């Protein structure tokens, strides 16, 4: 059985545009997933990346075109400049980590709903009420947003170290069985083909 480490930030529009395709691919191949939210700005700083606000206008213009194209391909609603972006990704990340430990809910649905709240619903995912609503909607106790703070912070920091050790430099990033790396939601078809033995 294959295992996928999924490195993400709840602030990523590209992780949002993945929808629930990762979960569908994993189910198709009977693969397991570990969700590993991390501090993307620190990851950029430590692996040679640049925060969006510091990128050259040419890069940002291309990013905006790519967002438009990828949004059309995904068939999802997306606000190019959300009201609450960037915001603090830690509360939503800690909640996702706590939900993964708790189990019994729809973790993929939770991750997607948090990102949808930011990118399509103009909500601030740093707000407790937003995070708790997402938890509740996907079968988790909303109190996880409060009870998971300490362990969530520790895991969040460890996920960053794990990412760097594993060769991660952006998000979304998928690693199969600790070896095969795929960067970006536009590589999910390749991930599917790899799990099928075609790549």
| Rg of Cα set | 16 Å
Q: Tell me the number of structural domains.
A: 1
User: The CATH topology, please?
Assistant: Glutaredoxin
Instruction: Tell me the number of helical segments per DSSP (H or I, 4 or more residues long).
Output: 10
Instruction: Note the main sheet.
Output: 4 strands, mixed
The largest sheet has its strands arranged as 2-1-3-4
Under the CATH scheme, the architecture is: 3-Layer(aba) Sandwich
Structural class: alpha+beta
Number of strands: 4
Q: Assign the CATH superfamily.
A: Glutaredoxin
Reading off the top of the CATH hierarchy, the class is best stated as Alpha Beta
Structure commentary:
This protein has a single domain (3-196), classed as Glutaredoxin, CATH 3.40.30.10. The protein is globular and about 40 Å long. 53% of the residues lie in helices and 10% in strands. The mean pLDDT is 96. It contains ten helices and four strands. The longest helix is centred in the N-terminal third of the chain and has 18 residues, at 57-74. By secondary structure, the chain is an alpha+beta fold.
Write the layout of secondary structure elements.
Elements: E1 3-8, H1 13-17, H2 21-28, E2 32-37, H3 40-47, H4 57-74, H5 90-102, H6 107-119, H7 128-137, H8 144-147, H9 149-166, E3 173-176, E4 180-183, H10 188-196
Parallel strand pairs: 1-2
Antiparallel strand pairs: 1-3, 3-4
């Amino acid at each position: 059985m294959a295992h996928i480490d999924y490195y993400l930030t709840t602030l990523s529009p590209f992780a949002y545009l993945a929808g629930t395709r990762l979960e569908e691919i994993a189910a198709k191949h009977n693969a397991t997933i570990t969700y590993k939210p991390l501090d993307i700005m620190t990851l950029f700083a430590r692996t040679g990346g640049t925060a969006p606000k510091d990128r050259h206008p040419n890069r940002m213009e291309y990013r905006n075109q790519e967002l438009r194209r990828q949004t059309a391909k995904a068939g999802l609603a997306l606000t190019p400049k959300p009201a609450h972006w960037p915001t603090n990704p830690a509360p939503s990340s800690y909640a996702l980590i706590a939900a993964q430990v708790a189990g019994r809910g729809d973790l993929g649905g939770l991750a997607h709903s948090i990102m949808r709240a930011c990118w399509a619903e103009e909500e601030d995912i740093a707000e407790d009420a937003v995070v708790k609503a997402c938890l509740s909607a996907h079968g988790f106790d909303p109190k996880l947003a409060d009870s998971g703070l300490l362990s969530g912070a520790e895991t969040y920091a460890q996920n960053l170290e794990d990412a760097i050790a594993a060769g991660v430099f952006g998000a979304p990033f998928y690693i199969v069985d600790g070896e095969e790396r795929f960067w970006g939601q536009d590589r999910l078809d390749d991930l599917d083909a790899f799990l099928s033995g075609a790549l």
